[in-house]
What does this fold into?
Amino acid sequence: MEKKSSHILNASSNLLGFSLVIITSLKISKISHSTHLDEFAGIACIFFAFSCFFSFLSIRAKSEERRTRFEDIADYSFLIALFCIVLAVIIVTMNII
It folds into this structure.
Protein backbone atom coordinates (compact mmCIF):
# COMPACT_ATOMS: atom_id res chain seq x y z
CA MET A 1 0.00 0.00 0.00
CA GLU A 2 1.31 3.41 -0.92
CA LYS A 3 2.03 5.63 2.05
CA LYS A 4 0.05 8.83 1.76
CA SER A 5 0.24 10.12 5.34
CA SER A 6 2.83 12.76 4.56
CA HIS A 7 0.69 14.07 1.70
CA ILE A 8 -2.40 14.14 3.92
CA LEU A 9 -0.46 15.96 6.65
CA ASN A 10 0.80 18.58 4.21
CA ALA A 11 -2.56 19.20 2.54
CA SER A 12 -4.63 19.16 5.71
CA SER A 13 -2.30 21.56 7.55
CA ASN A 14 -2.46 24.00 4.63
CA LEU A 15 -6.24 23.77 4.40
CA LEU A 16 -6.51 24.12 8.19
CA GLY A 17 -4.80 27.49 7.81
CA PHE A 18 -7.14 28.39 4.96
CA SER A 19 -10.18 27.53 7.09
CA LEU A 20 -8.85 29.62 9.97
CA VAL A 21 -8.40 32.56 7.59
CA ILE A 22 -12.04 32.18 6.54
CA ILE A 23 -13.23 32.24 10.15
CA THR A 24 -11.00 35.18 11.05
CA SER A 25 -12.07 37.24 8.05
CA LEU A 26 -15.73 36.58 8.83
CA LYS A 27 -15.28 37.66 12.44
CA ILE A 28 -13.36 40.81 11.45
CA SER A 29 -15.94 41.80 8.84
CA LYS A 30 -18.76 41.07 11.32
CA ILE A 31 -20.81 39.03 8.84
CA SER A 32 -20.46 35.68 10.58
CA HIS A 33 -23.91 36.00 12.16
CA SER A 34 -25.69 36.31 8.79
CA THR A 35 -24.38 33.08 7.20
CA HIS A 36 -23.55 29.52 8.18
CA LEU A 37 -20.17 29.88 6.54
CA ASP A 38 -18.27 30.13 9.81
CA GLU A 39 -19.96 26.98 11.13
CA PHE A 40 -18.89 24.96 8.08
CA ALA A 41 -15.38 26.42 8.27
CA GLY A 42 -15.23 25.61 11.99
CA ILE A 43 -16.28 22.01 11.38
CA ALA A 44 -13.69 21.82 8.59
CA CYS A 45 -11.03 23.12 11.01
CA ILE A 46 -11.84 20.38 13.50
CA PHE A 47 -11.67 17.65 10.88
CA PHE A 48 -8.50 19.06 9.31
CA ALA A 49 -6.92 19.10 12.79
CA PHE A 50 -7.98 15.45 13.29
CA SER A 51 -6.55 14.64 9.90
CA CYS A 52 -3.23 16.28 10.79
CA PHE A 53 -3.10 14.47 14.11
CA PHE A 54 -3.85 11.02 12.74
CA SER A 55 -1.59 11.38 9.72
CA PHE A 56 1.24 12.34 12.06
CA LEU A 57 0.46 9.30 14.22
CA SER A 58 0.48 7.18 11.08
CA ILE A 59 3.94 8.42 10.16
CA ARG A 60 5.25 7.70 13.67
CA ALA A 61 3.51 4.32 14.17
CA LYS A 62 5.74 1.28 14.55
CA SER A 63 3.31 -1.46 13.51
CA GLU A 64 1.86 -1.68 10.02
CA GLU A 65 -1.63 -2.33 11.39
CA ARG A 66 -1.67 0.89 13.40
CA ARG A 67 -0.11 2.82 10.54
CA THR A 68 -2.87 1.68 8.21
CA ARG A 69 -5.63 2.39 10.74
CA PHE A 70 -4.35 5.90 11.52
CA GLU A 71 -3.90 6.65 7.82
CA ASP A 72 -7.48 5.58 7.08
CA ILE A 73 -8.82 7.79 9.87
CA ALA A 74 -6.74 10.71 8.56
CA ASP A 75 -7.97 10.07 5.04
CA TYR A 76 -11.65 10.02 5.98
CA SER A 77 -11.27 13.06 8.25
CA PHE A 78 -9.67 14.91 5.36
CA LEU A 79 -12.53 13.93 3.06
CA ILE A 80 -15.17 15.18 5.53
CA ALA A 81 -13.30 18.45 5.96
CA LEU A 82 -13.08 18.90 2.19
CA PHE A 83 -16.83 18.39 1.96
CA CYS A 84 -17.33 21.14 4.56
CA ILE A 85 -15.10 23.51 2.57
CA VAL A 86 -17.08 22.73 -0.58
CA LEU A 87 -20.29 23.57 1.28
CA ALA A 88 -18.72 26.85 2.41
CA VAL A 89 -17.78 27.69 -1.18
CA ILE A 90 -21.32 26.90 -2.32
CA ILE A 91 -22.70 29.22 0.38
CA VAL A 92 -20.38 32.01 -0.74
CA THR A 93 -21.36 31.46 -4.37
CA MET A 94 -25.07 31.48 -3.62
CA ASN A 95 -24.76 34.69 -1.59
CA ILE A 96 -22.82 36.43 -4.34
CA ILE A 97 -25.24 35.50 -7.14
Remarks:
- The helical segments are 5-29, 37-60, 64-96.
- The mean pLDDT is 87.
- DSSP finds three helices and no strands in the chain.
